[in-house]
Amino acid sequence: MDVKKYLIDKMKEGTVHLALLDPDKQDSREAGAIAKKIKEAGADAIMIGGSTGVTNENLSDTARCIKEESGLPTIHFPGGPGAISKDVDSIFFMSMVNSTDPFWIINAQAGAAAYIKKLGIETISLGYIIVEPGMKVGEVGKADAVKRDDIARAIGYALACEMLGMDLIYLEAGSGADKPVPPEMITAVKDAISVPLIVGGGIRTPEAAKAARLAGADAIVTGTFIERCSDDTMLKSVVNASKGR
Ligand code: 1GP
What's the fold here for domain 3-243? Predict the structure, then answer.
């Protein structure tokens, strides 16, 4: 399937909800069970990835179980070039543009590109911008995180990514962040760009999801919340708040 077209078409209708599952945080059967629940709650696609502990094997197993249980499109959200699988429908071919290390900006991608092409995995280009606190991904990626009040710098990176031809922009506060990306930053970046904007990191309540949507996010990512939440009503509330329904 053409996952990029699916996502962009959906985002034209309103904000979408992307659920993130980390193959290192639960076994593949459990990931499949969570995917089924989050599909029922209204999620639009499943991202699969994590900063550490992802292998070809746990990535493939997780992708297969998610597909079987939910039928939703899957997108690999790579923590590096170490694990790649054709069992995932597509991959965010992403650059951490505010990393201080060229490895995370372009060298990891250069090392993996030929293999991804050989496997025939759909690539969706993505400019990945780390905002404070940045958490584990900011640390691993050696990010010079954008300060929460430095809106001009966030706009600069986002616009540069668009001008470089990237399909999507992702403002990332980091998994488990105590505070999500500030709504004022989301609005300012959204107003500056014309490609879709994904927002994630620290979104775990309907209020936070609604604030990101109203600020202008085209897609809202939740990871930690969906992995930990056993209350189906709460799951639905966060997905509904993301999608405005
Ligand atoms: C991490 O933005 C995602 O890349 C999700 O963050 O785990 O805090 O939802 P959370």
Answer: TIM Barrel (3.20.20)
Distance 189 CA to ligand 1 centre (A): 19
pLDDT of residue 51: 86
Q: Is 222 a pocket residue for ligand 1 (Cβ < 6 Å)? A: yes
Domain boundaries, the chain: 3-243
Torsion of CA 194, 198, 204, 207, to 10 degrees: 10
Q: From CA 6, how far away is CA 199, in angstroms rounded?
A: 18
Is the C-beta atom of 242 inside 6 A of ligand 1? no
% of the chain at pLDDT higher than 90: 99
| Residue 177 CB less than 6 A away from ligand 1 | yes
**pTM exceeds cut of 0.85:** yes
Q: Is the CB of residue 175 below 6 angstroms from any atom belonging to ligand 1?
A: yes
